[in-house]
Amino acid sequence: MAEEVKLLGMWASLFSRRIDMALRIKGVPYEYLEQDLTNKSPLLLQMNPVHKKVPVLVHNGKSIAESLVILEYIDQTWSHNPILPQDPYERAMARFWARFIDEKIVPTGIEIAIEKDEEAREAAIEKARELMKYLEKELKGKDFFGGKTLGLVDIAAILIPFWLMRFDAIVGIGVDILAEDKFPEIHRWVKRLSETDVVKECIPPKDEHVAYLKALVDRIKSAR
After folding, report:
1. One Pfam family for this entry, by name (predicted)?
2. Residue 44's Cα: distance from chain center in Å?
3. Is 61 helix (H, G, I), strand (E, B) or coil?
């Protein structure tokens, strides 16, 4: 009996793109179901009644929500082409840095994007730079966060080049948050990441993506 694998996602959501990447790395066939987050489908509400958001992985009728949880589930369910290290310590550290991105960098990025007060926004930008110094150090001497191959942290960190580093276009702040001379390791990693086939296949087109995020930020700001 063939496995049923479905991904409920949204084209502009980099959290959804994380799951696309993992399934492609594993070579798992799946059905992609695009979701309209302004008019949530009965299927999405059924499969993720708690958070009511994407991504949601549906495997043989059972749903799994939250992107980092889904990534671990994928890695444990299809053990070939692992995205988590086999060594227990390295595995724990990969989980640590993935959570660091979602719990520290993402909220700070959102603060930069929607903050109207210039002084508060500058403080958030500086905070983001301080946080990114940890990742700069973690990348030293590595091709990817996972070493020689794309891993969990790299997948989680696609938010950096395809969101955080596009803020000038998205919110018009006129500031290079991650200048190459200050973050050479991150820029080297971004170049290598952008040349990876699975990333190129999964990342939404730049112009359309920036336009969507800019409109989203403008709506949030006007509602505050």
Report:
1. GST_C
2. 20
3. coil
Per-domain residue ranges of the chain: 5-77, 88-223
**Architecture of the domain delimited by 5-77:** 3-Layer(aba) Sandwich (3.40)
3-state secondary structure of 144: strand
pTM above 0.90, yes or no: yes
Give the 3-state secondary structure of residue 26: helix
- Closest-CA residue to 98 (of 48, 127, 135, 130): 135
In this prediction, residues 90-98 reach a mean pLDDT of 97
Given a contact cutoff of 8 angstroms between Cβ atoms, the answer to whether 186 and 133 are in contact is no
pLDDT tens string 177-192? 899 999 999 999 999 9
Region 124-139 average pLDDT: 96
Residue 56 pairs in a beta bridge with: 8, 65
What's the number of CA atoms in the CB half-sphere (13 Å) around residue 208? 6
Task: List the structure tokens of 38.
Answer: 């302004």
What tokens were used for 127? 């905070």
